Amino acid sequence: MADEEDDIILSELDDEELVLQMHDDLYDGLKEEITEAVNILLERGWQPYDILTKALVEGMRIVGIDFRDGILFVPEVLLAANSMKAGMAILKPLLAETGAPRLGKMVIGTVKGDIHDIGKNLVSMMMEGAGFEVLDLGINNPVENYIEALESEEPDILGMSALLTTTMPYMKVVIDTMVEKGMRDDYVVLVGGAPLNEEFGKAIGADAYCRDAAVAVETAKEFMARRHNQMATA
Amino acid sequence: MTNALTRLLETRDWLLADGATGTNLFNMGLMSGDAPELWNADEPAKIRALYDGAVNAGSDLFLTNSFGGNASRLKLHDAQNRVLELNRISAEIAREAADASGRDIVVAGSVGPTGDIMEPVGTLSHARAVEMFEEAGRGLLDGGADVLWVETISAEEEMRAAAEAFANLDAPWCGTMSFDTAGRTMMGVTSTRLAEFMATLPKPPLAFGANCGTGASDLLRTMLGMADAAGEGANLIAKGNAGIPKYVDGHIHYDGTPELMADYAVLARDCGAKIIGGCCGTMPDHLRHMRAALEDTPRGPRPTLETIVEKLGDFSSASDGTGEDANAAPRRERRRRRA
């Protein structure tokens, strides 16, 4: 469907059109176009934080909804997230300079014995896309890795992923260790992975099971909002 | 070329496959996070007991303990150089168990996914995937596997890579995908799509179908879609989980009873499946009930979705992306399509 008249010159679009176009381009996973559009908005004097929230985060929110609803699947979301990342690479140093607000921080990793990082990477990228700071521990993490990262990074949230029935019980090992060390309640623990479900999350003592990356972002936001409220009233 | 599976498929109306590997090994003391494949060398008696569990429960076919036996997965345990050895032993023990049974039992060499995402979305090249699958398959054939059996695949590219590897080995093979995301695989493949592309492979599988996924109900809906797309004569495989996982007293327990799995097995046959087994949570007791039900229950009409829900419980999603839903998916209204 590549008609001549469909060719769009990004720099010729007005701000509103361009932001909407960016939502479409994120949806289509068009990395170069996202990079170009971020630069155009910067040249037009946009604040990095506004580009992040209005163009990128909003675009990924739409991707997240269609992923949640079974319209988009992992390959499309990965391409979208990669495009988002390309835009973020430009904005990140600028955001740090301008002291833009931070939603929260997450440490995330796939548990010991498990190589799968598709779901975890999606969560990582969508969380970053939503404005969280994320430290990704990668795959095959023994409990020591998690504890060490929690102690040194002091995140708000711990995310654990497992894609195998042979590795999912290991999440409980991590949570039990946190309890033993008296640090469980200092963190929101979110778990996810294909063989898990809500009941399993509850049974092992996690705060929530997240069905997919979009749900993970929503859940993380909810917990952060609750935390802030608690702090305000305390 | 005839082999044990072809012969059974020709002479039998249905075949009972096996159940869970991981769930059974946990019960024998496997620790979460450890590689089950290392037990082929370190705990051969337990692996034999795993196989005997399926054999004695009446399985006509069982899978070897080699699901994670590929270079990418074994690398986690620094055992990436032991693919051939561990897979060979898994098949050797299986061969002994099958031959000792006195029945015609098929040893199916289990080949699981690499765990990597393939190009262009991910980093794993087609050539490297084929190489890894070939190595995994070679070890299994060396140990005496009758067929290679690739399972729990979510990407079409990965299934194609496995198919090419098995063709290179000139090995008969079967393949199943895991439909766990709104009725599709994680990568978006529908049941009908699987049936379509499997039929067009240069060396098609002897049988194909679905394993694992979400629950018995979902798996049967998948079967219905696949049977429609595959048409008469295709050998379909149904290997569903025994319910959903629950955490009880420090271990994982699946909530599907043997009675439920017996209903599932009969319905799976009515849906058009020829090779019927379980996946996670399916223990020998489940298999015994499934076998008895398949033997004692006459074939019924193709079940409706309502019948499936009534007997096995609700689906996890409203649609599975096939049939009328295939084109009716609410696509986002676009501004302009880019060149």
From TrEMBL, chain A:
<dbReference type="InterPro" id="IPR036724">
    <property type="entry name" value="Cobalamin-bd_sf"/>
</dbReference>
<dbReference type="GO" id="GO:0031419">
    <property type="term" value="F:cobalamin binding"/>
</dbReference>
<protein>
    <submittedName>
        <fullName>Methionine synthase</fullName>
        <ecNumber>2.1.1.13</ecNumber>
    </submittedName>
</protein>
<keyword id="KW-0808">Transferase</keyword>
<dbReference type="GO" id="GO:0050667">
    <property type="term" value="P:homocysteine metabolic process"/>
</dbReference>
<dbReference type="InterPro" id="IPR006158">
    <property type="entry name" value="Cobalamin-bd"/>
</dbReference>
<feature type="domain" description="B12-binding N-terminal">
    <location>
        <begin position="9"/>
        <end position="103"/>
    </location>
</feature>
<keyword id="KW-0489">Methyltransferase</keyword>
<dbReference type="GO" id="GO:0046653">
    <property type="term" value="P:tetrahydrofolate metabolic process"/>
</dbReference>
<keyword id="KW-0170">Cobalt</keyword>
<dbReference type="GO" id="GO:0032259">
    <property type="term" value="P:methylation"/>
</dbReference>
<dbReference type="Pfam" id="PF02310">
    <property type="entry name" value="B12-binding"/>
</dbReference>
<feature type="domain" description="B12-binding">
    <location>
        <begin position="103"/>
        <end position="234"/>
    </location>
</feature>
<dbReference type="Pfam" id="PF02607">
    <property type="entry name" value="B12-binding_2"/>
</dbReference>
<dbReference type="InterPro" id="IPR050554">
    <property type="entry name" value="Met_Synthase/Corrinoid"/>
</dbReference>
<dbReference type="GO" id="GO:0008705">
    <property type="term" value="F:methionine synthase activity"/>
</dbReference>
<dbReference type="GO" id="GO:0046872">
    <property type="term" value="F:metal ion binding"/>
</dbReference>
<comment type="similarity">
    <text>Belongs to the methylamine corrinoid protein family.</text>
</comment>
<dbReference type="GO" id="GO:0005829">
    <property type="term" value="C:cytosol"/>
</dbReference>
<dbReference type="InterPro" id="IPR003759">
    <property type="entry name" value="Cbl-bd_cap"/>
</dbReference>
<keyword id="KW-0479">Metal-binding</keyword>
<dbReference type="InterPro" id="IPR036594">
    <property type="entry name" value="Meth_synthase_dom"/>
</dbReference>
UniProtKB/TrEMBL annotation, chain B:
<keyword id="KW-0170">Cobalt</keyword>
<dbReference type="InterPro" id="IPR050554">
    <property type="entry name" value="Met_Synthase/Corrinoid"/>
</dbReference>
<dbReference type="GO" id="GO:0008705">
    <property type="term" value="F:methionine synthase activity"/>
</dbReference>
<feature type="domain" description="Hcy-binding">
    <location>
        <begin position="3"/>
        <end position="294"/>
    </location>
</feature>
<keyword id="KW-0862">Zinc</keyword>
<keyword id="KW-0489">Methyltransferase</keyword>
<dbReference type="GO" id="GO:0005829">
    <property type="term" value="C:cytosol"/>
</dbReference>
<dbReference type="Pfam" id="PF02574">
    <property type="entry name" value="S-methyl_trans"/>
</dbReference>
<feature type="binding site">
    <location>
        <position position="279"/>
    </location>
    <ligand>
        <name>Zn(2+)</name>
    </ligand>
</feature>
<dbReference type="InterPro" id="IPR036589">
    <property type="entry name" value="HCY_dom_sf"/>
</dbReference>
<dbReference type="GO" id="GO:0046653">
    <property type="term" value="P:tetrahydrofolate metabolic process"/>
</dbReference>
<dbReference type="GO" id="GO:0050667">
    <property type="term" value="P:homocysteine metabolic process"/>
</dbReference>
<keyword id="KW-0479">Metal-binding</keyword>
<protein>
    <submittedName>
        <fullName>Methionine synthase</fullName>
        <ecNumber>2.1.1.13</ecNumber>
    </submittedName>
</protein>
<keyword id="KW-0949">S-adenosyl-L-methionine</keyword>
<feature type="binding site">
    <location>
        <position position="280"/>
    </location>
    <ligand>
        <name>Zn(2+)</name>
    </ligand>
</feature>
<feature type="region of interest" description="Disordered">
    <location>
        <begin position="296"/>
        <end position="339"/>
    </location>
</feature>
<feature type="binding site">
    <location>
        <position position="212"/>
    </location>
    <ligand>
        <name>Zn(2+)</name>
    </ligand>
</feature>
<dbReference type="InterPro" id="IPR017226">
    <property type="entry name" value="BHMT-like"/>
</dbReference>
<dbReference type="InterPro" id="IPR003726">
    <property type="entry name" value="HCY_dom"/>
</dbReference>
<dbReference type="GO" id="GO:0032259">
    <property type="term" value="P:methylation"/>
</dbReference>
<dbReference type="GO" id="GO:0008270">
    <property type="term" value="F:zinc ion binding"/>
</dbReference>
